[in-house]
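SAMPLE LOG
Freezer: B-3
Tube label: C17
Construct: single chain, 414 aa
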Amino acid sequence: MHILIVTPFYLPDGGPAAPLSTMLSEELVKRGNHVTVIAAVPHYPTGIVRPDFRYKHPVETKENGVNVIRVPLPSVNRANLFQRLVQLFIFQIGATLSGINKEYDVILLNNPFFMTGIPLFFLGVVKRKPLVYAVYDVYPDIGIQTGIFRNRLIIQWVTTFEKYCLKKATLIRILSKSFIPAIMRMDIPENKIRLIYDWVDLKLIKPLPKENDFSNEYGLSDKFIVLYAGNIGLSQGLEIVLDTAARFISQPEIRFVLVGDGAGKVDLMSEAQKMGLPNVQFVPLQPRERLMQVLASASVALIVLKKGAGFGSLPSKTYSIMASGKPIIACLDEGCEARELIERAQAGICVDPENTEQLAEAIIKLRSDAQLCLAYGMKGRKYVEEFHSPQKAAEHFEDLFIECIELFEKQNTR
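STRUCTURE (predicted):
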C-alpha cells in the first residue's frame, strides 16, 4: 500500500504526538508499505521553529524508510491563539501543495480541522481518495471545557467544519471509546468509527533506577518526587498540583516537579511564586531521548485534567508512565477511558479532578507504602507490553487502511 500521512507533528518535534506518528510510520514501512509523511518543521510546544529547520521551502528526506516532507513555518507565540491558528493555516497550505501531485492509495489525517482541514479537502475529497480521519480530541467539546471557546459563533464555526471533516472521512479512527457519543451527536453513524488505542515506545521507555543523570542534575535523587511531565497547557488544570503542594510545605522530602512547556506555564510559575511554594520545581522541556530518565526520577507520576476534560481525551503520557514502571496518580473523571484504563491495568490510584484532598491522600498512601508503588509500576509495564506496542498499532492501522480502501471502492461503484 502507498499511504500518505498528514500531521503537524513528527520527530524530532516535541510533545507526545510526534513520536506516535513516527513510530506508526516506521512500523508500517517494516510491514512492507510505502509511507509518505507530510509534517511541519519542529515547532512544538513553544511555537518557535528550531534553527536547523528554518527552511524557505518544503524539504523531502528519507528517514528510516519513510519519505518525510517537512513544511516550513514561521515562529510564533503558541500562547497567542490567533498566532497559533495562523501558523496552522500556513502548515495546511504547505501540506496541501506538497501532497497535491503525490500518488497514494489511502490518506490518514489527524483532527482537528484547523490542523488538517484544507489538506483533507484537497488531498482527500477533491482527489477522491480513501480517507481516515483520526480523532485525538473531540471538538468543539474540549475547547468549551477548557474555556478556549466561549463565543457562540466560534463554537458554531468549529462545530460546522469539524463535522464536515467527520462526514467526508471514509472511516474515523478514535483512541477512546468515550469519544463515540460526542461524535454521534454530530450526525455521524457509529458504523464509520473504529477504535485503535495509542501505543508507546517500549524500547525507549523502560524501568530504570531513580538515580540518573537527570535526577542528579536537578537534585531529585534523595526526594520523594511527585512528577508531572508533559504539556503545561490549558486543559490540564495543574493548579491542583500547586494547591496540593501547599499542604506539604512542612515536608521538604516531598517535592512536586513539573517538567515541560506550554501555553499555561508562565501563569502557573507566577502563581507558584505568589503562593511561596519552595517544594514546587519547574524543569524545562527535555529532549525525547531523556524521557526515560525523567520518568525514572519519579516516585509517583501524575496525570491531571480539568473536570470534564477526561471524556474528550486520553492522554498519551498514560502509556509512557506505565511503560516506565512508575505508579500513577490520576486526577480524572470517573467513567472516562483513561481512568478505566489505569484501573483495569491496576497501575495506580485514581482520584476526582480538581479534588486537592483526594490527591493529597493518594500521595500520603504511596509515600508510606513502597511495595504498593512497586506493584502498581510492574502491573502497568506488563499491561502496555501486552496491548500497546507500536507493532500491534501498525497491525491494527494496516487492517484499517485495507478496510478503508475496500469500503471506498464499494461506495464509489454503486
